[in-house]
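Section 3.1: Structural characterization of target chains.
Under the original work plan, the team committed to producing a structural model for every single-chain target entering the pipeline before any wet-lab resources were allocated. The record below documents one such target. The sequence was received from the expression subgroup and is listed exactly as submitted; it comprises 163 residues.
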Amino acid sequence: MESVVSQITIARGESDQAIGDEIAKRVRRYVFYTIFDDVSGTVNDGMVTLRGRVTMPYKAREIAELASRVHGVQDVMNEIGTLPVSAFDEQLRYVIAAGIYRDPLFWNYAIQVNPPIHVVVEHGRVTLTGVVYSEVERRKAEIIARSTFGAFSVDNQLRTDRE
């Protein structure tokens, strides 16, 4: 499964792998899933657990519904949280995302349909998730986020292709 947008951890078997791949594909194609949301999950004998944070409550419900309609899914535990409504956090999300995706190092990501770097902000605390090509890109994204006025802390969870 491609882990650019969402990561589904597979516990056992081919069928769990197929379920995880299909869920990840559906999440990536979900029209309201943005770079400001982050969803991950696990599949174990058809039991799916979804985790992460989204900007609106309806997204959590609809993503869980998408997962429940995948063939082979027995049950879905929806542990996706909703980020609090905050004009400050919203502005910070946009400023950090613009700083990252306007940097020439990240132009190849910015033109993608589903850009791989996600910026999750809660009460001024920034979490970067997704996959980048190199350690240099991972560190550069963190530097941009840390140097943005208003970011109280930055948790860099970006992974490289090799991880």
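The chain has five helices and eight strands.
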